[in-house]
Amino acid sequence: MAKTSGEPPQDEKSGPQVPAAEDREVVPDPKTVTVDIIPDDDVLAEAVVVTETSEQDSDGDSAAEAEDEVVVDPVTGVTELTTTSVELDPEAAAGDVEFPNDVVPLPETGTVFSRRSRIEGTASGHPEPAAMLTADRLLEPSMRKKPAPAGWWPNLVFHATFGLVNLGDSASARYQKDVLFRISQPLEGGTKFVPVLTRKGGVGKTTITTLLGMSLASVRQDRIIAIDANPDRGTLSERVPKQTRMTVRDVVTRAASVKGFTDLSSFVSRDVTRLDVLASDTDPLMSEAFNADDYNTVADLVSRHYSIVLTDCGTGIVHSVMGATLDRADELVIVSGGSLDEARLASETLTWLESNGYAALVKNAVVAINTATQATDLVRIDEIESHFQSRVRAVVRIPYDRILAAGGIVKYSELHRSTRDAGKELAALVVDGLVSE
Q1: How far apart are CA 47 and CA 227, in angstroms?
Q2: What angle do CA 320, 298, 351 make, to 5 degrees?
Q3: C-alpha–C-alpha distance, residues 62 and 55, integer Å
């Protein structure tokens, strides 16, 4: 007889059995992530803080807890309280990602100063930076009027009407300002070397070098030097007040002892325009011994301290110094006189340069026609100018000036205005070529 018990037998068809608690599949609880949101706008910065919530009981009843959102005004410091809750998908929340329980505090934002905040008074009580002291804020309207225009007629009208009528600068004044702007253009890429050369002596090569150097130095804020590299006893140093008896030979022999610009300054003479001049040897035997290696030594030394180096070359185009000079050249200035043979020799110089690998320098060269030479009145200068315009980038005509023609010390302030204007135009063209190379 079968045994019976107090428990009824289990029916296999009554339904699935409920698994034990340890065998149940654990369903991940819904998660809410703590997120810090900091917008790009500093003025409307706010922090959104969302706290983690979880299921509270097995019956499915849950309570979402969220901490208060703190909105901090960076100017007034006033806080506002709001509540934001973000619930994520359980699958997105499940995994090995750990979420911090602590709320990261919002970093303090400094006071933002602006013209509007000053007018509205929202930034009062805080110290202002120096940038708030602008001319529009401090100066009276009467002090912010445009300056008197340049040019005799616009200036006359301006003062006759007590400043009520301002015609602006005249055309010539605008041109002069444009020339000064072009001369002042910044140069990139290290020191620029500009040889001044021709194949014929007596056409004013040293004179043009002096005028060009003074025109550059009087406008630019960097350092300009002119080196007399003429192996046939150059006279460049005689165009400025002599302040030293040092020459290029002294620079070569003492190059190792030159540690800075102060040491190098003892070898040069400086004009009132701030043009530095390095003289050549007065002894023809010593000057003839000045070769390519010597020039490279001097060039390497001055390139550490000067932005533009002008080289007053000799007439010997096949001399070794000429080869070293052309190898370093960034731009050429070719000097021509106003006579037939002087113009022809200058043109032949261009031909020689093109035939010996310097065609690019010829294309970017500037020709200065010195009309202070003899027989200028008998030659059509316009035709000479037209000829060179077909071969080089630009041509400048230098007018006659008695101070330049004298061959002595050149006082830049005493030059005729037309001469100074021509020198500045030459300088502007040279800088244009250095910038565009």
Answers
A1: 68
A2: 35
A3: 5
Backbone angles phi, psi at 199, to 5 degrees: -95, -5
pLDDT at 147 over 90: no
Closest by Cα among 343, 345, 397 to 366: 397
- Spatial contact of 239 and 210, defined as CB atoms under 8 Å apart: yes
Contact 302, 217 (CB under 8 A): no
> What does the domain layout of the chain look like in residue ranges?
148-183, 189-436
pTM of the model: 0.66
- Give the tens place of pLDDT for each residue, 30-61: 444 444 444 444 444 444 444 444 444 444 44
CA distances from 67 to 52, 62, 70, 129, 408 (A): 10, 16, 9, 38, 90
**CATH architecture group of domain 189-436:** 3-Layer(aba) Sandwich (3.40)
What is residue 196's three-state secondary structure?
A: strand
Q: What is the pLDDT of residues 284-294, one digit of tens each?
A: 666 567 789 99
Token pair for 364: 């970017």
